[in-house]
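Onboarding guide, step 5: your first structure request.
Type a short instruction followed by the sequence, for example:

Predict the 3D structure of this protein.
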Amino acid sequence: MSGWVGDVISSFGARGLAALMVLENLFPPIPSEVVLSLAGFLVGRGELGFAEALAASTLGSLVGALALYALGRRAGGASCCATGPTCG
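The system replies with structure tokens like these:
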């Protein structure tokens, strides 16, 4: 998995990192540990700036979390509680 993740970050830089963080939130099989480790590696090599990596990863994670929040908000509490009687 890390091969194509590294290719995306190397090719697209901070924008690729942000996009991968959004996908990491929306699609669980992409682990953030892989994405952020490779971003840190590229920061260490000087191919990606620390500030831009920090901003891109934070923004991407926030956008992904807000997308899931909006989906849950739109679907309503009933969809979350459809699997069981314990809903608070």
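Each response can be followed by summary notes, for example: The longest helix spans residues 50-75.
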